[in-house]
């Protein structure tokens, strides 16, 4: 870019020198009154250089060593919106309010004999304000003496307006970004406060449940003892209806006891949701579960088949054991009376994580029952003992690490649980 500007200025300088020299020669000949052929040729040259000077697309002007305006082209005259006569008779101070600054630039060029390029300046013209990008170079005579300054300007008002609008838009965007960032930070703080408050409430609730279940254990034991004592003392003295009433009382106490136990299980699960993530071998976990429910498997004739494409998962060992334990025991409890339970357990890798699949051939579920499956203390079959907490616990564990659990079922045929396992790293 600077090379192009330099070449252009060099060309202007050459043309202007010839133009000035021709003007000088013509004036000399006029004073000597020498009507010769040479004078005619010089006039033709002068006219040619003048036309070239005026045809230059840039705004070109020449100022003397005393800051006086010597020459200018047609583009300069059009830009200033002042007639040529007024331009030649007015001082630069009258033409330009910022003349003193311009004079400083001119003197710097004259004194250093070095160009001053890319001067961005605001210029007040009649009825308007414009922006120019100006290059100034020292103007020399035939002897190489600096006689003034050659200035070449380009109007950049439109570009400057666009730049200013762009800068204003960028500044507005910066302010909006800062405001958004501030709002995000404040919102994050609010969420953290809410999260801390929720954790505190959950902790208080867990503690309450734990304490309540612990404190209720003794009264329940006492009630159960009183019922047994009452049965013993009334043995042979009660009617059939009274015996049924006492049995109902015992059943209610047992259910109450199991509910308390399940509440303690829930609080225990809550405390272990942040179980340490480790490489957990599913075969090992499954063997532990089989040992714990050995008699349940033997008494029901249950068969457990496995196909682990992913035999080792990164998951809390207590949590994965709780998931498998509840799904397996659930499948055995809700078996079909028409066939022995067969449970198929498999895993496979997906884009989202490891998919654990537990499929049984039990009673199956209706669409209405599926919608109620994971509700705490919701029991779908009264003929099987339970409290309706197991599947709630499974869902709670799975979702606490960002996973999910889905169920597919056909009434009277089978039920399949699909568990997406994700681990918090």
The CATH topology name of the largest domain reads Beta-Lactamase
Ranges where pLDDT stays below 50 over 5 or more residues in a row are: 1-6, 19-41
- What is the count of helical runs? 13
**Averaged pLDDT, please?**
79
The strand line-up of the biggest sheet is 2-1-5-4-3
Q: Share of helix among residues? A: 55-70%
Please write the CATH class name of the largest domain. Answer: Alpha Beta
Radius of gyration: 49 Å
Question: Mind telling me the CATH superfamily name of the largest domain?
Answer: PAS domain
Q: How would you spell out the order of helices and strands?
A: HHEEHHHHEEEHHEHHEEHEEHHEE
In the residues, how many domains can be counted?
3
Number of strands: 12
Quaternary state reads single chain
Structural class call reads alpha+beta
* Main sheet makeup: 5 strands, antiparallel
**Form type:** rod-shaped
Distance between the termini: 56 Å
Percent of residues in beta strands?
15-25%
CATH architecture of the largest domain: 2-Layer Sandwich
């Amino acid at each position: 870019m600077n090379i192009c500007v330099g070449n252009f200025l060099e060309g202007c300088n050459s043309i202007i020198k010839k133009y000035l020299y021709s003007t000088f020669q013509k004036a000399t000949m006029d004073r000597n009154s020498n009507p010769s052929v040479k004078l005619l040729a010089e006039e033709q040259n002068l006219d040619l250089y003048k036309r070239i000077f005026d045809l230059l697309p840039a705004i070109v002007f020449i100022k003397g060593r005393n800051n006086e305006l010597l020459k200018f082209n047609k583009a300069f005259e059009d830009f200033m919106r002042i007639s040529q006569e007024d331009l030649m008779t007015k001082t630069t101070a009258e033409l330009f309010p910022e003349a003193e600054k311009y004079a400083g630039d001119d003197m710097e060029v004259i004194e250093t004999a070095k160009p001053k390029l890319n001067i961005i300046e605001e210029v007040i013209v009649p009825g308007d304000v414009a922006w120019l990008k100006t290059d100034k170079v020292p103007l020399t005579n035939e002897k190489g003496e600096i006689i003034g300054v050659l200035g070449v300007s380009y109007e950049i008002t439109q570009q400057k307006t666009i730049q200013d609008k762009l800068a204003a838009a960028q500044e507005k965007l910066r302010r909006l970004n800062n405001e958004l960032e501030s709002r995000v930070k404040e919102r994050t703080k609010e969420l953290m406060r809410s999260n801390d408050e929720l954790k505190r409430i959950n902790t208080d609730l867990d503690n309450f449940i734990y304490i309540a279940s612990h404190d209720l254990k003794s009264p329940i034991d006492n009630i159960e003892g009183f019922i047994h004592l009452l049965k013993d003392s009334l043995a042979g003295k009660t009617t059939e209806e009274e015996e049924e009433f006492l049995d109902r009382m015992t059943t209610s106490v047992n259910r109450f006891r199991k509910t308390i136990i399940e509440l303690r299980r829930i609080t225990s699960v809550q405390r272990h949701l942040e179980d340490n993530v480790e490489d957990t071998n599913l075969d090992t976990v499954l063997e532990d579960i089989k040992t714990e429910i050995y008699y349940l498997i033997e008494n029901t004739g249950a068969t457990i088949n496995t196909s682990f494409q992913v035999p080792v998962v990164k998951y809390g060992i207590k949590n994965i054991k709780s998931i498998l334990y509840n799904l397996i025991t659930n499948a055995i409890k809700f078996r079909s009376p028409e066939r022995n339970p067969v449970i198929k357990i498999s895993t496979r890798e997906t884009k989202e994580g490891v998919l654990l699949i537990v499929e049984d051939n039990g009673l199956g579920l209706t669409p209405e029952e599926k919608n109620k499956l994971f509700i705490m203390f919701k029991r779908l079959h009264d003929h099987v003992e339970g409290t309706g907490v197991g599947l709630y616990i499974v869902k709670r564990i799975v979702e606490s690490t960002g996973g999910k659990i889905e169920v597919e079922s056909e009434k009277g045929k089978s039920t399949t649980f699909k568990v997406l396992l994700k681990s918090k790293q």
